[in-house]
Amino acid sequence: MSNTQWESLSVQAVAVVAVVYFLALLAHLIEWAALRKLPNDAPIDARTRTFGRFGFLLTVIGACVHLVGLVGRGMAADPNRVPWGNMYEFVLSGTFMVVLIFLLLRSKFHLQWLAPVVVGFVLVILMVSQLTLYEEVVPLTEALSSPWLVIHVVSAVIATGAFTIGAMLSVLYLVKARSGDRTTGFIGRMPAPEVLDRVAYRVHAFAFPVWTFAVLITGPIWAHYAWSRYWGWDAKEVWAFITWVVYAAYLHARATAGWKGRNAAIVALVGVATLWFNFIGINYFFGGSSQHSYAAPAVVSVSGDSAAVPLSPGTR
Fold first, then answer.
1. What are the residues whose beta carbons fall under 8 Å from the beta carbon of 173, sequence distance 6 or more?
2. If we measure between CA atoms, which residue out of 86, 91, 142 comes closest to residue 297?
3. Which of 42, 117, 130, 158 is least surrounded, with the fewest CB atoms within 10 Å of its CB?
4. Are 123 and 21 in contact (CB under 8 A)?
């Protein structure tokens, strides 16, 4: 296949993913609508279970097609490369990891009830990125042409996906804790608040060392390879470190001060806010001055003016 065909395949795969995730979300919403008046200990009829299984199957199919879209982005470049050259590709990778981690943890932690939240979140983020961040495939910059990029970004994306799932659990903990003894509907069928709190902690405890590996080990090694220095207080480096500090405080407080429940959930949400701001916001607000500006929206110099003017997404 030619590079153009690979890029076309990637675009088509993302379009198919949107449809499949939408159908999965619809199936899960129908399932939960059927359960809205049943107590959480009431038996579930076969028809309702079928919608749940169908939603899960569609989510798995969507994840597979999502992966095809990622691979297509990398294969469309000349030479072939990893699909992490710009913001659109980072978001494509990050949303795939959110779905993958959910599927891997679904049975272990009994997270079937979380499916509509995960699928709805990923669908919205994917569509927004497709409309506002899409760029044609181009070769990697010299700074990105390193095997350390693969190690650094893979670990960062895994941690991002896990932290995002942890944030969803923290939000739902706060909702469940405020709902009192409600026993019907989506909230009623969620696990008890203490279970949500415990699972959120376990997910964060997994993600934190992975983020540490990405930010404090592979990141500086890659920076030394690309720019001959390990740490330069670049805006993205600073915010990655801020995210690390917030999550370190979260885990430390839980381990030493016995923080659980509401306080821990709020700290976790502060952490995910800094994470996603670093993931996307830094590129908009500090992209021009950041050495990570290859991931920012494209800029062009205006003739006769030294200022750089951001191009609209997709403009070349």
1. 193, 196, 197, 200, 261, 265
2. 86
3. 42
4. yes
Given the structure tokens 């003894």, which residue do they identify? 181
- Closest C-alpha to 135, from 78, 91, 79: 91
Residue 292 and residue 236 in contact, taking contact as beta carbons nearer than 8 Å: yes
Q: What is the mean pLDDT of residues 298-309?
A: 37
Of 146, 88, 87, the closest CA to residue 290 belongs to: 87
Whole-structure pTM value: 0.86
For residue 25, which of 126, 156, 148, 101 has the smallest C-alpha distance?
Answer: 126
Rounded to 5°, angle at Cα 269 from 263 and 275: 140
What Cα–Cα distance (Å) separates residue 135 from each residue in 95, 153, 296? 17, 19, 11
Place of tokens 């495939």: 137
Q: Among candidates 195, 180, 1, which has minimal Cα distance to 111?
A: 195
Give per-residue pLDDT as tens, 187-224.
Answer: 777 888 999 999 999 999 999 999 999 989 998 888 88
Under 8 Å between Cβ of 84 and 93: yes
**Short-list 265, 273, 252, CA closest to 193:** 265
- Give strand pairing partners of 308: 301
Q: Which residue has the tokens 């191009």?
A: 311
For the chain, report the end-to-end CA distance as a whole number of angstroms: 25
Coil, strand or helix at 313: coil
Q: How would residue 312 be classed by pLDDT, with cut points 50, 70 and 90?
A: very low
Backbone angles phi, psi at 179, to 5 degrees: -80, -10
Sign, CA dihedral 35-16-58-132, equals negative
Task: Note whether 46 and 34 are within 8 A (CB).
Answer: no
